[in-house]
Write a structure and sequence with these properties.
Layout: E1 12-14, E2 22-26, H1 36-47, E3 51-55, H2 58-66, H3 79-89, E4 95-100, H4 102-116, E5 122-126, E6 151-156, H5 164-167, E7 176-181, H6 192-195, H7 199-217
Parallel strand pairs: 2-3, 2-4, 4-5, 5-6, 6-7
Antiparallel strand pairs: 1-3
């Protein structure tokens, strides 16, 4: 795999510096690394004992610097940037890569090469975009059928980019575990009046479940 040349990457870190496990997260297509949902997820994982590092792809960093609304490139065009982030982070202990929505999708496309080379221990996706909004037949799952990297996907049951009913029919690798969050949307947020759960409840469930999964795959 070719590593794309990039400018030095700025990481936003949460959690204890001496944590045994590090989680590297990339943002979704439309929100930066310090968006409300990314920050809440990072803080929840940090509370569970992970060292969390967030970063931005070049197009999002350009938006921050210039104030433009430059659209994201095709997801696979960001693969090299994700690998560069892994390299620049220079993690000493077990590393789990992933991200929110598109960030998790990009991580899933580079995961197996990194896993085979011993650079990562697993993949974490927070709201995987199984298909574009309103296009359930345009699946983004072909590479997931043969995925070899231990993978944990946290998905809302009413996520418009992949509901529980839709995902049940997909051909997914046995290495993929899915945590379903009742009534969660693409940001994993439930409607409390309908589900009885709050966003904080779901993030607590996520952090605890990820900690248990990571303990198994990083043993």
């Amino acid at each position: 795999m070719d590593v794309q040349e990039t400018q030095p990457i700025e990481f936003l870190k949460s959690g204890p510096d001496d944590a045994r496990l590090t989680v590297l997260l990339a943002h979704g297509a439309g929100g930066p690394m310090d968006s409300k949902s990314m920050t809440a997820a990072a803080e929840a994982l940090a509370t569970a004992g992970f060292r969390v590092a967030r970063f931005e792809f070049g197009y999002m960093a350009d938006r921050r610097a210039s104030g433009s609304r430059r659209p994201p490139p095709r997801a696979d065009m960001l693969n090299g940037e994700y690998v560069a982030a892994v390299t620049q982070l220079d993690c000493k202990g077990p590393l789990i890569i992933g991200g929110k929505s598109m960030g998790g999708r990009v991580a899933s496309m580079v995961a197996d090469d990194l896993y085979r080379s011993g650079k990562i221990a697993g993949l974490l996706c927070l709201g995987y975009p199984f298909h574009p909004p309103g296009k359930p037949d345009n699946l983004r799952t072909a590479h997931l059928a043969a995925l070899k990297t231990p993978t944990f996907i946290c998905q809302g049951t009413r996520d418009e980019l992949g509901t529980k009913e839709e995902v049940a029919g997909y051909d997914l690798s046995p290495e993929i575990d899915i945590l379903w969050l009742e009534d969660g949307d693409h940001d994993l947020k439930p409607r409390k009046t309908i589900s009885g759960y709050s966003a904080a409840d779901h993030l607590k469930t996520v952090s605890e479940a990820v900690a248990g999964w990571a303990k198994r795959v990083c043993a």
